[in-house]
Design a protein that fits this description.
Elements (H helix, E strand, L loop, with lengths): L6 H9 L5 E7 L8 E6 L2 E7 L10 H17 L18 E3 L2 E7 L3 E2 L4 H18 L11 H17 L6 H25 L2 H12 L2 E3 L8 E4 L4 E3 L6 E3 L1 H12 L4 H14 L4 H12 L2 H6 L6 H12 L1 H17 L4
Antiparallel strand pairs: 1-2, 2-3, 3-5, 4-5, 6-8, 7-10, 8-9
Helix pairs in contact: 3-8, 5-9, 7-9, 9-12
Length: 335
């Protein structure tokens, strides 16, 4: 599939949702030149988005879009208003199929990125609302085990580091400078995750899971012009661990800023207070060097080089953020 969409194809897809496009513009993301298409119609501006299956799941593309659409419908029916509204197509579904690719349409959100303490408190409250409200919904599906996936990626990272002499000079230097520290942090986290309290917490979560976004990044959070916070790009939503969702949101949005980290956690705990074991769980997950793990499958790609370079430049900030979360854990007494 090409990165651009013909005007005729965009018109055909959008009309299936009861709209007539007047103008359309492709919007790029970090990964794709045409990740989304902004469509101007007589009744407003909308986002047309292609749906791509997750390779982390065994199910096919159609099964995945059906599951995602079911989850979206449940959230919309139960008053969760922090995601753009998905439109129903002429078939009654929240998506349509064109040339073998599912597409969906949502309202377009004009706004800005997060930039202050209040914004991060809002994000924390929205995440807590998603997690707490979805636990009471009649959701079908399997619990997605991010932690098992991370175990596999950690093993691959260690194998790659053991063969660092076969890498280029820059990568060898990076592994020599930071690789061992990454494995030490991982070892500490894996030990903590094996503690009886956290094992029990994980088992309970699998019995009563919640919906998680799975891809909270700065690019996927918008502060609308009226001040409301919206999370976009719900393609990877699934039943999973709320602690994974919080830990990855902290890593992917706060830029290791202590004020932003505290603000996100403060907002979250306003609606969903966390005991010491839960805090320890989040701190342990945050410590994992997930970015480094993501580079080992394609170490020669420029993007992998960029990720490792960013990790090196922000290393001291990361260490301070880990210490901050350890302090946050110790502030909460054992119940």
């Amino acid at each position: 599939m090409t990165n651009a969409y013909a005007k005729s194809r965009i018109r055909k897809i959008v009309r299936r949702f009861g709209l007539i496009p007047l103008r359309s513009d492709p919007i790029a993301s970090f990964y794709r030149k045409s990740a989304i298409v902004r469509v101007l119609t007589g009744s407003g501006i909308y986002a047309m988005k292609p749906f791509f299956r997750s390779n982390l799941l065994r199910s096919g593309t159609i099964d995945q879009i059906k599951t995602t659409a079911d989850h979206v419908q449940l959230l919309m029916n139960n008053g969760f208003n922090s995601m753009p509204k998905w439109l129903a197509s002429n078939s009654g579904k929240l998506w349509t199929l064109d040339q073998g690719r599912p597409f969906y349409l949502t309202t377009w959100i004009n706004g800005r990125s997060m930039e202050n303490q209040e914004d991060f408190e809002k994000l924390g409250r929205v995440l807590a609302s998603l997690h707490t409200s979805s636990r009471s919904l009649p959701i079908k599906g399997h619990f997605y085990d991010h932690i098992r996936l991370w175990q596999n990626r950690d093993r691959l990272f260690r194998k790659r580091m053991a063969k660092a002499n076969q890498s280029n000079r820059w990568t060898r230097r990076w592994y020599k400078r930071l690789g061992e520290s990454c494995t030490q942090f991982s070892d500490r986290s894996w030990t903590e995750l094996k503690s009886p309290e956290i094992v029990d917490l994980l088992e309970k979560e699998m019995i009563r899971p919640a919906l998680i976004h799975s891809d909270i990044t700065s690019q996927n959070v918008i502060i609308a012009n009226d001040g409301q916070l919206f999370i976009i790009d719900w393609d990877r939503m699934k039943l999973g661990s709320i602690y994974v969702d919080v830990a990855t949101a902290l890593m992917n949005t706060t830029r290791f800023n202590p004020v932003f980290i505290h603000s996100l956690l403060k907002g979250y705990e306003e609606l969903c207070p966390l005991d010491r074991t839960e805090r320890r769980m989040i701190s342990s997950l945050y410590r994992f060097p997930r970015e480094a793990w993501s580079t080992v499958q394609f170490p020669s790609r420029p993007r992998s080089h960029n990720i490792l370079d960013i990790m090196e430049k922000t290393w001291l900030l990361r260490l301070k953020a880990m210490d901050l979360l350890d302090e946050w854990v110790n502030q909460q007494k054992e119940e």
